[in-house]
Fold this sequence. Notes:
About 70% of the residues lie in helices and about 0% in strands. By secondary structure, the chain is an all-alpha fold.
Amino acid sequence: MTLWTAELRLLLRARLTVIALLLLAGVTIAALGVGMFEVSRQRSAIAVIAETQAEDIAAVAAYVDRSKDAGSAAYYSFLPTWDTPAPLAFAALGMRDVSPYILRVRALGLEAQLYDGDVFNPELALPGRFDFAFVLVFIAPLVVIALFHDLVSGEREAGRYRMLAALPLGGSGLFRRRAVLSLTLLWSAIAVPFAVAAALSGVALPMVVIVLAVIAGYLLFWIAVAALVSRLGWTSVANAAALAAAWLMLVLVVPTLANVAINAVVPVAHGTEIALAQREKVNAAWDIPREETMRRFYANHPEWADSAPLGPQFHYKWYLAFHQVGDEAVADRARTYRADLKRREAAGRSLGWVLPSVGVQALLTRLAETDLDAQLGYQDRIRAYHRRLRTFFYAYLFRDRPFGEADFAKVPVFRDRDGR
């Protein structure tokens, strides 16, 4: 029997070690199950879009076909967009838990439609939904503390330290073996369930390897903290108290205070303010001469300026034009809002270089494509689709072309980042 095997058997005979490892593995499996269930629920919701959309459009087409009015088609057609979860999304739900992943849009003003649900930067440093990232960042360090707070002090208090240090293969080598074995068991309790879940979810092998390395690195950090505390020569109880205080400060208190400071230094308006401003511009268009609205519209869209003049009757090209003008009136505010969100996100990521808890959580959401960048990327795809949608309907409205039931098949269809 090798020394490594003997040490492993001793570790597994310790009731605290076994209970802690089983609890950690159980909590990890539960968190992965929650994440996989949520991602599956979102995928199912996205999968039924086509069926429900076909029913809605069929009803709109039957109505529009009677008048052949492209404006009615544009007004009543709610067209779906969606953000399919990345394979790793189950591990860190991130903004998918607080931001829409399905949004139905019309060819009217987009800004109000985008910001009705408001996009905000969730606090990277604060506890979020119970998922794999939560277990790794918040719970795993507590298990490290439970297993490592008395690694040396426990032997000293039991009166065995001098004897163990005097053995030929004892001393620091003995404690290194125990630390390596404890780290391996801890890592396995988290990594093995994750690897199984990743395989079931179709995560690419390089991504799995990166996450496994992140797990090991984060555990090593907390083991290093425990080692530093143990060198102070305190009792096991004092070590546990100091490590618990370090966990509280590094995982909760300091990240929370830093987040408050970032929010104060980088203020961000609410997206609902942009939606409200856009609606005010749209509503005001009813009270100004229609020709003034069309002049503003044609100034930015001269390709439609040769359209026939408006008659005395209501025309949807004027209605869509003042929605477009409303969007353009708040375009600078929307760009500033996005820029401020990115600045705040960058500040939070910078904090991750100092606080591993914040850095690990931010890294996992980036790998899982559930962070702010991913959400803004979804918005960019919606904007690109909306431009195609408006251009499509403008070609009918500004040229007074009839729009019948068959034309609904030509309406642009949204494509997600994977082309589906």
